Amino acid sequence: MSQGIEFNRLMLEMRSMQMDAMARAKPAPATSVQEAGAPSFADMLGQAVGKVADVQSQASSLANAFEMGTQGVDITDVMIASQKASVSMTAMTQVRNKLVQAYQDIMQMPV
């Protein structure tokens, strides 16, 4: 009888291990880490690019207004807007470079 109990215990243990192995082999269901109201990374990046485009457009329109001699448009305002546009474009370029580098690093990782 002792051997029967040992055999049953061994079989239960083996089934338990088999179930654990099968559970690990199943892919985890895709869960979203994103909260309900939080924007996605793509949305945030799109908004940032849109803001850079707006700053560039404002600087261009201020420069055109100054060139046409529009009253109330000062050279200092034009230069400040131009520098803001330049800084925002440089920052966006740096973000793009970092994203490309991160993508390349991930693609070079061994699987």
TrEMBL record:
Subcellular location per UniProt equals: Bacterial flagellum basal body
The molecular function terms in GO held by this entry are: cytoskeletal motor activity; structural molecule activity
A GO CC term?
Answer: bacterial-type flagellum basal body
Indicate where this protein is primarily found.
other
What the entry lists under InterPro entries is as follows: FliE (IPR001624)
Task: Provide the GO biological process annotations.
Answer: bacterial-type flagellum-dependent cell motility
Q: Which UniProt keywords apply?
A: Bacterial flagellum, Cell projection, Cilium, Flagellum
Q: What is the similarity comment for this entry? A: Belongs to the FliE family.
* Protein name according to UniProt: Flagellar hook-basal body complex protein FliE
